[in-house]
Every structure is written in C-alpha cells, then in structure tokens.
Records
---
Amino acid sequence: MPATDFEKLSVESATVHEQPSAWARVRRNGSVRIGGAVMALLLLIALLAPWMGTVDPSLFDAASRDLLPGQRGEITTLEGETVPHRFLMGSDSFGRDIYSRVIYGTQVSLIVGVCTALLSLAAGIVFGLGAGFFRRLDGPLMRVMDGLMAIPAILIAIALVAMWKGSLLTVVVAIAIPEIPRVTRLVRSLVLTIREEPYVEAAVSLGTPTWKIMGRHILPNTVAPLIVQGTFICASGILTEAILSFLGVGLPPDIPTWGNVMAEGRAQFNEYPHNIFFPGIFLAVTVLAVNILGDGLRDTLDPKMAKRG
Amino acid sequence: MLNFLARRLASTLPVLLIVSLLVFLMLRLTPGDPAAVLAGDAASTEQIAAIRASLGLDRSIAEQYLIWAGHLLTGDLGQSYYYKTAVTTLIGQRLEPTLSLALITITLAVLVAVPLGVLAAWRFGGWLDKALMGFSVAGFSVPVFVLAYVLIWIVSLKLGWLPVQGYKRLADGAGTWLYHLVLPALTLSVIYIALIARVTRASVLETLGEDYIRTARAKGLPEVKVLMRHALANAAVPIVTVIGIGIALLIGGVVVTESVYAIPGLGRLTVDAVLARDFPTIQGVILLFSFVYVLVNLLVDLSYVFFDPRIRY
C-alpha cells in the first residue's frame, strides 16, 4: 500500500463536506441535461418556425396532394400565387405541407403543455393551501377532489371539450382540471407537515397573519416538489392534447397540431404512413424529453419523492 | 373483517355520490339546449318546450339531479339522443369487446411485467434492469396511438401476420376472437407493463434486503424459491395496488385503442357520443367507467388480506 498522500486526502475530505447547492445538483444531473437539451431544441424550433423553410401551415394546393417525403410540388400562397415547394415530409390529402404543419405544431404542443402545468399548479396551490389551513374547507374540498380523481382523466377532458367546443383555452382548461386533485393533495400534505415545524409555530405565536405565513414559510417549501409535479403534468398535457386532436374532439382540424396531422393521415395510413409517423416521432420525443427532465428534477430536487417512486 | 368491509363500502359511497354529482353538473351546465338538439332544426318553439318539459329540463337543477339520480339507482341511464335507445342497452351491446380487450391486456401485462420486474430487481444494476428502466420511461412517453400505428405497419401491413382492424365476437369462435385482439391488447399493454414492472422491481428490491431473504438463502433454498415464495410474495401488496390504480390508465387507453383498431366497444361509443354531443350516453359511459375504477380499487383493498396475512381488518 503506498504512503498516504495527505495533501490529496485533505482536499478530498474538504469537497465531501461541501454540500452542492440544489441548482448545482440539478445542472450536473444527466437526465436533466438530456431532457433539457431536447426541450431547448424544441423551443428553438417553435420560435424559429417561420424561418425554417416552412410555408404557412394552412396553405394547400390541389396539384400537390399526397406527395411522398422529399418530393417537389407547388403550393398556392394566400395571394393566389403558385410557387414551387419541396415537401420534406410529404403532403396530406389536401395538398398541405406536412413539414410546415409539424414544425408549427411544436408551438401548439409546448404552449398547451406549459399552460396546462401552470394552470393546474395555480389551482392546486389555492385549493391545497385552503384545505391545509382551513379545517372547515378541508373535508368537503378533499371529498370533491376524491370524486374528481375517480373519473379517468382522459374522459373528463373529452367530456369538457365536447361541451365547450375546442379552442386553445378550453383544451388547456379541460386537460388541467383532472390534474388539479393531485396537486391539491400534494400541497395540502406539504402544508400539514410544514405547519407543525417550530418556525411556523413561532410565527403563529407572534401573531403573524395567515396569508403572511403561507407566503413566507409554506409556499417556498413547496416550490421543489411542485416543479417536479409540474414537469410531469406538462408531459401528460402534451400527450392528452394530441389524443384529443387525434380523436377529433380537440382543437379544430385546421389548426396545425401533431394530433390533427395524425388524425388527417388516418384514412390513408396504408399508402402514406409518414403522415402519422413524422408527427408521431415529434410527439414521442417531446413527451420522452419532458419525462426524462422530470425524472432528473425529481432525483435532484425532491429526494424524498425519488425514494418513494 | 365484516366490520372493515362495511366501513370500506361506506367510505366508497360518498365518492360515488360525488362522481355522479360531478358527471351530472359537468354535462348539465353546458351551453346549448339539449331539447333543441333533440328536436332538430325544423322544430318549432312549442315543440322544443314540450320536449324540455318531457325531459324535466324546465325544473330546477337540484330537482333534475334528484330525478336523474333516482333513475340511476334503478339502473336507468336515460335515453340516447343520437341512437334513440336506452343508454343501458347501448352499453350492453358494447360491453363484450371492451371487456375482452381489457381482460386480455391485464393478463398479458401481468404475465410479462411481474417476471421482468422480479428479474430486474434480482440482477439490480445489470443490463436487464437498465433496459427495463429505459423501457418503462419510453413506455410512458410513446403515445398509445403512435405505438398502435407502428405495430399495425410492421405486424399487419409489412409482415401480414395479424389483421389491421376489426373485431370478431367470442361467439364466432375463440380463435378468430383472439386473433383480432392480439395486436390491440399488445398495444395497450405496453404502458401497463411499464407501470407494473417498475413497481414490481422497486417492491421486490426492497424485500430482497430483508433478513428473511438472507435466512432463506442460508438454509440453501433454490434461488427461484427465494424469489417467488419469499421476495415476490412479500412484495405483492404494492404490485396489486398499482394494477388497480392502472385501471384508470387502461380506460384512457381503451378509448384510443378502440378508435384506432375500429373495435366497436365502450371507448368507441364514448368518442362517437362526444362527436354527436349525445349527453346521456357520455354521462352513462363516464359513470360506468368511474364506478368500475372505484370498485376495482375497493376489491384491491380487500385483496390485501389474501396477499399479506399480516394485514387484518
């Protein structure tokens, strides 16, 4: 055994004691890096959609119907001009450019995912704080949440969209509603745990108003688990929107979403499977990236939950 | 045990009550008049009013709920606006395909997922474990309809092994029945396998660290017996629980899978009813699915006694 290198040892023991900050742990996590990188790429695609060799996704041309990927054809602009266009992912039965529709579809998916997550988190925080702080509210509110959780999420979303008619707002709200009970439960359980902490007790005995205790002491402690939860809601929101559109009950068919492109491609799947495969790949990769990101965030931000899962 | 059963049943009732209230309100507070929909475009104002009165829509919302819930208790889910038959009849006609699909899927998923999960836990950190964890993340992410089309493309269109779409009744012969259900069940089982395998792995991993496992190995028990009799048996409760919770996932998947594979089941009925804005049918199907979900999880709770004799109620 070689002689101990004391200098090296001391350096090592020093780094062991140093607790890396949560943010540093998050940044160093492999899953966060992979998921985050793919998400950044998708965000870039969504933002740069008009400059990526796309045409207006609603444009069509009867002469360019059912083209195979890479084929050349023409497209009629809104002004009635016919310009040559290369259909990278082929065209659908109206002669629309699948590539443009898929690229613009990224915008819709990301907006729906993020808005669904934010909306259900916001509602869940309000209900969770309410149930955790006000005893009278707790019973009835949580029973309603139990009832809501007993109805399969996709059925609630389908029924709500059916009643309201599909628009971006109604789809987001309809997807967010079945996610609210889980967030409410999470926030409520965090409130009930944190409430018993000595520093909250101290604040209460000092006569701190309830809203101040919520804002100063409770909410900051819910941030990490809520970010994790929000990421998973974002993934399932993107997926549910695509399912709704695919079933024909989501956003109107002229809006370019991955689900709508796939729904349009259903009838001709035998001859032109790419109409379903290209948007399908984008959808699967996006949901996978968000889920991987969520797994990484859970492992680094919320070790308790990581052990449970 | 009986005491527990009574208490557990009693705690289920409020949930069912609230589910019925939510489903009722969700569709009754709809913009748009069901009576006008039912009467059609050519109907006069008087005709619409008559229909509204006959449906009880002119009463207060609380009265309407009580009447509706009363009918529900006698097993009457109302008349379909679109099909013009009783919703219960409609559901009865569509029950077989959905039940067949669900049962085959659950069987397939459990048979594949549980051994995979046990093996992954047994060789923790090995290639199978890593592959399974990767598969489970992917299984949660690949949308069921995308997977359905990939499978149709490879298995049905390229290889020609299985039919692309359609459903054959069990009465037409078990062979053709199964032949038409293999692909849909395979599609639907992927996410379920991902879920069950993941929980099985975690649960078995935990029991493998227990002292009695060491004892079992020390007394020279074959490894298979250690895994099955000791590790898996003690890990059963979380696995059974997740199978129950996964029913919700399965129901969502049924709606999509039946639509892709053109299976005339309850999922297909849901989508058709939504497209036709046929509210009594939507209500009926959602209620049925929710009640099934609640009851399955009640049965799961009760099964703990069977799987873990330490649990006594």
---
Amino acid sequence: MLLFRLWLASTRRAALGPLRWLLVFTGGVHVGLAFGHTAGQPFLSLLFVVSGVTYLVLAVLRRDRRWWRPVTGLLLLGTIVAYLALVGSGREQPDPVGILDKLAELLALGLVMLPHEGSPRGWRRPLRWVIASAASLGLTVATSTAIWAEDLAGSSHSHDGTSCAANHHAGPGTVLRPAPCTVTPAQQMAAEGLVAETRESIAPYQDVRVALAAGYRPTTPDGAGVIHYGTAPAGRGSALDPRHPAALVYVRTRHGAVLLGAMYQMPAQGQPGPDIGGALTPWHYHTNICFSLPGLFLSGLSTPFGQCPPWSVRVTSPDQLHVWTAPNPNGPFGDLDVTWARRLAQS
Amino acid sequence: MTSLRHVLLLVQSAVCGLVALGASVFAMASHSPLLGLLAAVSGMLALVPVLVAAGLGAGWGWARGLGIGWELLLLVSGVTDALVLRNDDMVAVVVNVFFPATLIWLLLRRPPTMRTWSDAVSPGGSTRS
C-alpha cells in the first residue's frame, strides 16, 4: 500500500518535491539500518523501523494537513538529537551513511520550518523566514560540530582491529594497518633492534640545530607542543633506514626542543609498511591531513565533510611508524601519551 | 525549489563554518598567527552562502551572480579534489561536488529574487519546496 502511494505520488510530479524525496531517502536509510542492527541492538533496530516507516508514511501523506509540518519537524529533530546522543555515548561511530542521512534530515527540517503557502501573510511571514533560517543554520552548525567532536574524540570507541596492537589506537582519520595478533621471538628481537638502532642514529639530533643543518624542517606543532621535523624525500634513505628517518619528533619545552623519537615513512601512499615486530609495530596512515599549498605547512584536519581551510588540500599520508626513543609511557612503538608530552612541554 | 536553494545555501554555510571553527581551534592550539589568519579567512568565506541567501531573499540583483561565481569556485575545487587528489569518498563528493552543482542549477533556473519574503505570489510558480 505504501509503495503504491509512493508510486501514485511519483506520477504527480508537482506533488513529489525535494522535501518528499529527502523524507523517502532518510526513511529508506532508517529501514536499511534496522536490518544492520537486528542482531546486536534489537531495540535500536525497532526504533529504526518505526522512524523509517513513519518517514515513508509522512512522505506520501498530503502536506496541507495542519499537523503535518509540526509532526514531521519534531520527528526530524528527534532523530537528529537521538543520533547525536548515540554517537556521543560511543554506541555509533560517525560513518558516511550516518553523516549523509543527517545532512538529508537537516535539509528536510530546514524546508519544513520555512514558510509555505498556508503560512500567515503579512509581517509574520518574513519573520518566520528569518527565524527558520537562523534555526536551520544553527542546527546544522551544532550537529556537524558534535559529529566532528565525536569523530576527533572517538578513538577510544574505535574497534578497527586495535585489539591486537597494544597501546595503538585508530583515531579520527588515522587508519591502523592490520597486524598479526602474535609476536614471535624473532619479531620481538627485530623490534628491539630497530629501537636501539634508531636511538643510536638519531642521537646527534638531540640538538635541534643539527637537525636543521641536516635538512629537517619543522611542521606545525600540535596542541601538546609536539612538532615533527620532516625532510624532503631526496634526503631519506630506504623507508626503514635509521640513519635517515623521514621525520624527527620533538617537544617544545621551556628549555628548548627535546627529541622524542623518529618517524619512518613509506615512499608512496598506499604501500603497506614491512612487518617488523608483528603486533608491536603496526603501521598507520592519515586520511584527514590538510596541507596549505603556499608554504606547504600543516593547516589542520579536514572536517567530516572532507573540507580543508582555504588554499589547502586534503592528503592521505603514506604509511608511517613512530619509534619513541624518549620514555613514552605507551612504549617505544605505542601512541604518544599526550598528557605525558604536555607535562614534558611545561617542564 | 526556492526554499531548497535557500536551505542548501544555509547548510553549505554551516558546513563551511565548521572549517573556520576547526581552523580557529588548530590556530589556538598551535599558537600560529598564520593559521589564525587562515581561520579568519575561512570564517569570512563561510558567510558568503548566507549573504547570497539573504541577498536573494531581499531581491538584491548581485546576489545571484555572486552565488553562481562562488558555487562555480566550489565546484571546480571539489571536482579537482575528487578526481586529481582522489578524495572521492561519498560525503566529500556530495558536499563538495553535488551541493555546488545543484545550487548552480537552482540559481540558473529561477528568478534571482525570493518572493516568499513578500506577500506577492512568485512569478516562477509555486513556492512549495
């Protein structure tokens, strides 16, 4: 019956405007998501079915009913808020389907709020237009900020194969290469060898001026004062040559830059790094780095919508592996402990 | 369609505003005046779609030209990003290619003013979304 009504509506071109299409899209997405959550989260799956079917029903109903806009608006607002609550609690990750669905719902909500033919005329119409526009703008900013915030903070919720690699977490825009879950004695020895060789090779760079003289140049520091000094590919050896690592990592302290370790990097994007220490040494790459074209400096992280600041491009980095020669609490290959780095910076 | 154009411009402005917000946070975290300047420019650019939407609503003639020019810039940038830099994930393509292309189409096919602001009946037909 529902499909028949949809077909009937589609035959009347004027009746099937963008708002109906957006409702049909989001209803379809919700019904589809219900199937994906049946096994793990049956209650959520039921909610998806209810909201999805309600959207489809609202899409085929006549819009001149007085209750249609308030009900549709409340349902759209409710599903946006529910999504943000789910994402904020870590039960869902902001994935492309979810983000596109929210965009469709925000567009639909904006259309529902704007004045229509049945709206009162006179001074109230432009006022409603302005209020609806401001609400639409504010809701989109709030929703997309919340999605991005969760995306950036969501590494603790990530399940991307991090269980095998202790002290390694895939963060927002950071992808961990799958690594075997075991560490053989040979891999343990190889990993320890790499740390020892790296420590010995980069020892002269304790003084940052030596690094600058060798051609290493600073990139933009992060919030903890950690800064990578990279070198041009021509100045590097092979991907894992301890004498010529792709970058040296320092933290800015009150007494000058302190060397934390080195970063190895594969020569080209998409090439998986060699397996050295199994689960100890998983390689990673970044998908959300913004580089400013004039000056080639790190200008930020791309938003969940894939956008960078002006004059910047989004790049995916080649595979990278950090080796910490300073006493990082997460170990020589683990994620850099930001709290520890920040303490070091303030020391 | 007029309403769709208006809402699309607002959503686009909010999405661009997020870039400015992110750039501001990054600039503050890294204490970089250069990044601060980038954040300020991002913020100003994020206001362009709102300006176009408001201009179209108020019947300002230049708003349509500004909108088409701005969307063309975004479209070229988005297509280059997707085809040359291979940043062709679904969300990026929708926001950076599909949105500007749709807005260009909407800006070209409709009269520049948004009559729903006034009591007059739109000469372009129904104002229903």
